[in-house]
Amino acid sequence: MNGDGFLVDARGLEKRFAIKAGFPRRTVAEVRAVDGVSFEVRRGRTFGLVGESGCGKTTLARTMVGLYRPTAGSLFFDTPADKVELVLELRARIAEAGTARGPAARAELAGLEERLEVLRREYDVYSLPKRKLAAKRREFQLVFQDPWGSLDPRMTVGHIVGEGLVVHGIGGSRAERADLVRETLASCGLDPDAIDRYPHEFSGGQRQRIGIARALALRPKLLVLDEPVSALDVSIRVQILDLLKDIKDAYGLTYVFIAHDLAVVERVADEVGVMYLGKIVERAGRADLFSRRFHPYTRALIDAAPVPDPNVVRRRAPVRGEPPSPIAPPPGCRFHPRCPEAAERCRVEEPPLVQAAPGHYVACWMRPPHRAAPGPGPALPGGRPPSAGATVRAPGA
Amino acid sequence: MSGGNMGGMSATRRKTGDGTVENRRRDRGTSPFRLSMRRLARDRSAMVAAAIITAFIATALVAGSGAFGIKAAATEFDENSLDTMRYLPVGTEGHILGTDGFGRDVLARSIMGIRTALYLGYLAGLMTVPIALLFGAVAGWYGGLVDDAVTWLMSVVVAVPGILLIMSLIQIVGKSFTTMAFAFAVTGWVGLARVVRGAFLQARESEYVLAARALGAGDARIVFRHVLPNVFHFVTVNFVLQFVGVVKSEVFLAFVGLTLVGEATWGSMIDSARSEVSSGRWQNLIGPTLFMGIFLMAMTVFGDSLRDALDPKLKNSEEVRS
Amino acid sequence: MTGERDPARPPGGGAPTGAVPRPAAPAATGDARRPLPARPAGLAAALAAEAPVLDVRNLAAWYFTDEGTVKAVDGVGFKIGKGKTLGLVGESGCGKTATGLAVLGLLPPPGRVVRGEAVLGRRDLLRMPEQDLAAMRGRDVSMIFQEPMSALDPLMTTGAQIAECLEMHTDLDRRQRAEKAVELLASVGVPEPALRAKAWPHELSGGMRQRVVIAMALACDPKVVIADEPTTALDVTVQAQILDLIEDTQERTGMGVVLVTHDLAAVAQAADEVAVMYAGVLVETGPVKDVFSRPAHPYTKALLGSIPVVGQADRQLVTIPGRVPNLARLPSGCRFADRCPLAEGACRVAEPDFIDVGAGRKVRCILATGRAAR
Questions:
Q1: A313: nearest CA partner in chain C
Q2: Where is B130: in which H helix or E strand?
Q3: Confidence of residue A60 (pLDDT cuts 50, 70, 90)
Q4: C205, C221, C237: which is the final residue of a domain?
Q5: Is C41 part of any domain?
Q6: C292 contacts A317? CB cut-off 8 A
Q7: Degrees (nearest 5) of the Cα angle C72, C323, C273?
Q8: CB contact, 8 Å: B172 with chain A?
Q9: With an 8 Å Cβ cutoff, are C97 and B1 in contact?
Q10: Among C153, C225, C154, which Cα is nearest to C188's?
């Protein structure tokens, strides 16, 4: 389809979990795990998502691959850009027409809604009919963080990696499937003869390779990687990062790479989104984000990033406190209780994610376009001056 | 805890570098089940218990087939003793453990008691497992209101004293092995169902089930390929331990007069021997209590060892992580 | 190991005593009376650093499993000076946690200490009756665990848990214990300590729980604290706070800290000395600055090179091939030889000795020590 377009186009994704209690059960509270997240991922690129625990990044990953049904929002996967535009235009017109009265307006509204529905059932992952979604699943796969919990201990490696092939009826015969599995294992740096062995016979790094092979066996277009290296030892991490780079090139994959470790994301991502309490607070090309780091939270994350160099004088903890609960996010800007720069407006009004510089989006009242940009941040903890200018331009929203 | 590669590699028995592809002969891995069996084989008390149980089963089969006249000796009345209540003392006229008041051989009846116990326990197990699996799985898998309803039902069943329920059930349906086994199943499924429900709840949230879902696997596939195999060990252990419960209940039922007339059961033997103890004859207690004691002991020990060997938590403890 | 505290190092923010360190009472390592808290650290502590508060020598702790003897700790030795921090680093399965547990006599079966000494004050912790050791745990030496949630009793309020430590080791009465618990919570930076003392562990955030665990560990002013991955379970912004807290407390009480971690960055920031562990043995020890700037052992070098750092995305990361050897079937020569880019024939013959290369550094590598000798 559109060669240079977006593979993923997420619009206003929202996922809330109801906390039920009592008898009979009723909803006593709501966790707003993902609260209106939009982003695009270009074909063949890596979109990095950074955030601390509880920011909703794992929920977002699982929602993206259809494990959770979002409370609101759409995900256009491998959709021609003009169709996405059309959907957005229709939505805007429906919103407009919704306020109009009279039979003519109502008829127009019905017509618009019908057109939108047709488009959504064709392109929006979450609106796809069940069977279509099941088939589509093949194209986006998830890699889990925990190499110990994500493999069924009672299945052989061959069954684990081949399960998707069986489910989707890929590979005619058992032997054909076994060949596919062996080939995939080999591309993931595993011994193809390991297919008869069980997960407990492998080390953490090898298990993670099995998890990657399982996702890769379906030859997906998109891999959503949920903290793929954070459970591994440092010496193994580099091996897995190398592997991810290799298979990305070999299979022409697109990645959504989720991590809490900024240094890892900086290495793998072309574009980076920083998440805080269910929202993206800053999004930009990698170099741009790391050099400008507009949002105070991004700044705090980078400042807190540990540096294995005793000669770098560590700044005292850059922010106080911990992220508040996503059950009751603070009013106004969600970061204001911890923010060193918070002003009155931050406490009452939530800042929208808007363009602060070309391709650089920030949700902060103290930053452009609301205020003038602050001076460039202090030298990066690594000791290198921030590289100037953006090399990767973020797509417009 | 440290020592991250203790179990993982010892089971692998050879080292492979991460990221190296080596060509070597294809070999079959060691499944968690095989590991469990290895653990069980190392457990000496479990092996002794298993040997006893095997011997019991073999004896019951041989005796049940009518060989050596055991079956006959256990049931045939001595015409003479019908009026006189002639008890033969231990070791007379070829009766190693003597005879009861009807002139029936106590040893033969004790042996036939094994058969009853095994049959009852087996039947009860066959009936319990599907009930428990069904309720446990449905409650754990669907959650919400369904879970509430099943949990409530389980609480009700538990709240009623089991033995009363069994007694009334047998009174209503009539005495037979099948009704007794059914009564045991109706009261005994809750324990297993709770465990199964827990396992389903846990599995539903486990990452490997999420992973299967992400691959596009449907509910049926997930339940049968990923969840049920992880419930299997609870079922096995429960099956073994249910023999213990069934035998104990049977004895109790015999005490309140709910026994199967004409069948050799340890319960009925103990019950009739009880009345003789007051007149100084305790010999008829020896056979059934001894057999029952050994049987219960062996089943309990084997059941517990099996649980230890099959418990996946133990498997993880082998692979200690830092 | 007697690395002097770098005079240029800032004296842990917030220390109200100012720049002029007052001379303090001489270190009383063997003394029953511990120094009072809030004593200014600095010169005095540096002078006293010659006498180590904890001296571990040739410690070996093995797990006797069905599959064979797993030599999790196989001859580890280190010293911690007063007010100093030793970073004990290594990857999972290298035996660093087992080392910490063994020193405290907390090694779970089938693990057992087979040889070695751990001298605290003048007594060997490893040859002490369990009763005496139990009395010392919490009072003279205490531990901070990785998982703050599992280290706390979910059925006790935080205040009660801290008070329990005090009850075991001090003669304070009930009210004094409660007051001290609140005081301790305040000292570890828990806001509204009086209120939080009445809170249950589940009501606190991860960082707050870790602060409570630290407050418990510090309740009796121990001479040594063994902190096992104290920041691993926490978010980066909180990690920095916890490291600050440990450093501040150390400045205040002069305790020695063993920072057991896989995180080289945490060691770089918080430790004075570093001991790198690999497959049950130490491969390199020395002052953090020297070891990090000029690592001598190929493993240390590779480990440092494998960590991605923000702002250095262009630097090629070092890949360490393979994985740690099986501790039940160790190779005959150097334990790292199979993964070492420099290994030669001689490396596989005999295990290299742990050789002193001067400047307070030791290295277990025939290539490195050969070079150093030249």
A1: C269
A2: helix B106-142
A3: very high
A4: C221
A5: no
A6: no
A7: 60
A8: no
A9: yes
A10: C225
Strand partners, C112: C62
Distance, in Å, from the CA atom of C143 to the CA atom of C163, rounded to the nearest integer, reads 17
Sequence length of chain C is 374
Q: Rounded distance, CA C240 to CA C1, Å?
A: 26
Q: What is the pLDDT of residue B31?
A: 82
In a domain, B308, yes or no: yes
The amino acid at residue A384 is R
Instruction: Check residue B312 and give its pLDDT.
Output: 53
- Count of structural domains, chain C: 2
Please state, in angstroms and rounded to a whole number, the distance separating the CA atoms of residues C179 and C181: 5
Peptide bond into B89 cis (omega under 30): no
Query: Chain B contact for C109, CB < 8 A?
Result: no
Q: C116: which 2 tokens?
A: 């070695």
CB contact under 8 A, C13 and A312: no
Beta carbons of C371 and C301 less than 8 angstroms apart: no
In sequence order, the β-bridge partners of residue C124 are C119
Secondary structure class of A279 (helix, strand, coil): strand
First-to-final CA distance of chain B: 5
Confidence grade of residue A109 (pLDDT, cut at 50, 70, 90): confident
- Assigned domain for C330 exists: yes
Q: Is B313 on the interface with A (CB under 8 A)?
A: no
Q: CATH number of the domain that B212 lies in?
A: 1.10.3720.10
The pLDDT, as a whole number, for residue B314 is: 44
Contacts of C132 (CB under 8 A, 6+ apart): C123
Cβ atoms of residues C255 and C222 within 8 Å:
yes
3-state secondary structure of C49: coil
In a domain, B8, yes or no: no
ipTM of the complex: 0.81
List all residues 6 or more positions away from B156 whose beta carbon is below 8 Å from its beta carbon. Answer: none
pLDDT > 70? residue A380: no
For residue C190, give the chain A residue with the closest CA: A321
DSSP code at position B37: H
Name the residue in chain B with its Cα closest to that of C71: B3
Give the domain range for residue B182: 58-321
Query: CA B173 to CA B8: how far, in whole Å?
Result: 54
Residue B107 one-letter amino acid: L
Contact C252, C37 (CB under 8 A): yes
The length of chain A, given as a count of residues: 397
**Residue B46 forms part of a structural domain:** no
**Do the Cβ atoms of A205 and B148 come within 8 Å?**
no
Tokens of B127: 């009936």
Structural domains in chain B (count) = 1
DSSP-derived secondary structure letter, C232: T
Rounded to a whole number of angstroms, the distance from the CA of C323 to the nearest CA of chain B is 6
B276-314 pLDDT, tens digit per residue, is 777 766 777 778 888 889 999 999 999 888 888 887 554
What order of strands is seen across the sheet that includes strand A72-77?
A26-42, A6-21, A72-77
Count CA within 13 A, CB hemisphere, residue B21: 13
Please provide residue A11's backbone torsions phi and psi, each rounded to the nearest 5 degrees: -125, 115
Whether residue B97 is contained in a domain is answered as yes
Cβ–Cβ of A189/B19 closer than 8 Å?
A: yes
Alpha helices in C254-314 (DSSP H): 264-270, 288-293, 298-305
Instruction: Give, as one character, the DSSP assignment of residue A142.
Output: E
C163 part of a folded domain: yes
B29 to chain A: nearest residue by CA? A197
Taking the Cβ of residue C262 and every Cβ of chain A, the question of whether any pair is shorter than 8 Å is answered with yes
What is the rounded CA–CA span in Å between residue B307 and residue C48?
56
- Answer whether the bond into residue A326 is a cis peptide, omega within 30°: no
Among C207, C235, C306, whose Cβ lies nearest the Cβ of A234?
Answer: C306
The yes-or-no verdict on residue A129 having pLDDT over 70 is yes
C189 Cβ contact list (under 8 Å, min separation 6): C211, C241, C245
- The whole domain housing C359 covers 295-373
